[in-house]
Amino acid sequence: MRELHFKDYFWNGELTSTGGYDCIIQHLNDGKRTCKEIEDFMKARASIEEKYAKELLGLSKKVCGHNEMNTLKRSLDMFKLQTEHVSLSHLQLAQTMRDEAKKLEDFRERQKETRKKVEQQMDALHKQRATQFKKTMETKKTYEQKCRDKEEAEQNMNRNASTSNVKQQEKLLTKTQQAKQNAEEADRLYMHNVSVLGKTREDWQKEYIKACEVFEKQEVERINTLRNMVWTHLNQLSQQCVTSDELHEEVRKSLEQCDIQEDIEHFVNLRRTGDKPPAPVLYENFYSGQRVPAGPPSSRTAPPITRRGPLPNPDNTEGDVIYSTVDPGYSALQY
C-alpha cells in the first residue's frame, strides 16, 4: 500500500490559496499544544509523587513498636526502614518524571525554532507570490484593453478609408499604429509578468515541498517522542511497583523470622519476677492464737473456746474503799 505524505495531498487549485498550508500549520499547532499538555501532566504527576514521598518519609520517622522486643521489634524496625526506602524511591521517581518533562520541553522548543524559520520563509514566498499574481493580473487587464483599443482603431481606419481625405487617413493610421504599439508593449509586459509569476510559482512550489517534508518529519518525531515518553513513563511506574514490592518482600522475610514463642520466652526471661505464687493467708484465732488456713470452712468441729470466769470479789483489806453490790433484781429502767 502506498504511503501518504504531506507533500502529495495538501495542494489547492487556486494559485494564491494557502488552504493546504494552513491545514498543516493548524495540525502542527495542535501537536505543539499536546506536547505542552503532556509536559504539564508529567510535572503535575512528579509533584504528586514528591508530596506522597515526603509524607511517607515523615510517616516512617514516627514511633512504631518502640516498646516491642526481640523478633517482632526487628520486624517492625525493618517495616519502618523499608517504608523509608519506598519513600526515597518515590522521590527518585518524581525527579525522573521532571527530567522527562524537561526533555519534552526542550524537544518542543527545538521544533518551534525549526518551524519558525520555515514558516517565515513560506510567509515571504506567499506574499511574493500573491504580489506577483496581482501584478500579472493587472498587466493582463491592461494588455486586453490595449488589444481592444488596437482592434477598434483598425476598424475605425478601415471604415473611413474611402470617405476620409489623406490627412484624416494619415491621422487614423498614426492612431492605429500607436494603438498597435501600445498593445505590443502591453503584451510584452504581460508575458514578462507571467514568466516572472511562473518562476515565482516554481520557487514557491519547491520550497513548499521542502516545507511539507520538514513538517512531516517534525510530526513523525513528535508522535514518536510522545509515544516513547508515555511508554517510558509507564515503565517507570511499573518499575516503581517492582521496587516497592522488593522492599516489601524484605519486610515479609523479616516477618517470617518473627517467632511468637521465642518472643514470649524472651519476655519471660527478661522480665520475670518469680516462679512461686504467694502463700495462702491463714486464719488466726484471737483467743487461742491457733492458726487455721483462711480457706473454706472445715467440716471438722471447731476447737473449744476457753471463756474467762467471773470477776473475783475484791477484798477490802484496807477499809478505805467500799465496793457497792447490786441486787440481782435491780434495773436502771423505770417502768
TrEMBL record:
<protein>
    <submittedName>
        <fullName>Proline-serine-threonine phosphatase interacting protein 2</fullName>
    </submittedName>
</protein>
<dbReference type="InterPro" id="IPR001060">
    <property type="entry name" value="FCH_dom"/>
</dbReference>
<dbReference type="GO" id="GO:0005737">
    <property type="term" value="C:cytoplasm"/>
</dbReference>
<dbReference type="InterPro" id="IPR031160">
    <property type="entry name" value="F_BAR_dom"/>
</dbReference>
<keyword id="KW-0175">Coiled coil</keyword>
<feature type="compositionally biased region" description="Basic and acidic residues">
    <location>
        <begin position="135"/>
        <end position="153"/>
    </location>
</feature>
<feature type="region of interest" description="Disordered">
    <location>
        <begin position="128"/>
        <end position="169"/>
    </location>
</feature>
<feature type="compositionally biased region" description="Polar residues">
    <location>
        <begin position="155"/>
        <end position="166"/>
    </location>
</feature>
<dbReference type="GO" id="GO:0005886">
    <property type="term" value="C:plasma membrane"/>
</dbReference>
<dbReference type="InterPro" id="IPR027267">
    <property type="entry name" value="AH/BAR_dom_sf"/>
</dbReference>
<feature type="region of interest" description="Disordered">
    <location>
        <begin position="288"/>
        <end position="320"/>
    </location>
</feature>
<feature type="domain" description="F-BAR">
    <location>
        <begin position="4"/>
        <end position="263"/>
    </location>
</feature>
<dbReference type="Pfam" id="PF00611">
    <property type="entry name" value="FCH"/>
</dbReference>
<dbReference type="GO" id="GO:0005884">
    <property type="term" value="C:actin filament"/>
</dbReference>
<dbReference type="GO" id="GO:0030041">
    <property type="term" value="P:actin filament polymerization"/>
</dbReference>
<dbReference type="GO" id="GO:0051015">
    <property type="term" value="F:actin filament binding"/>
</dbReference>
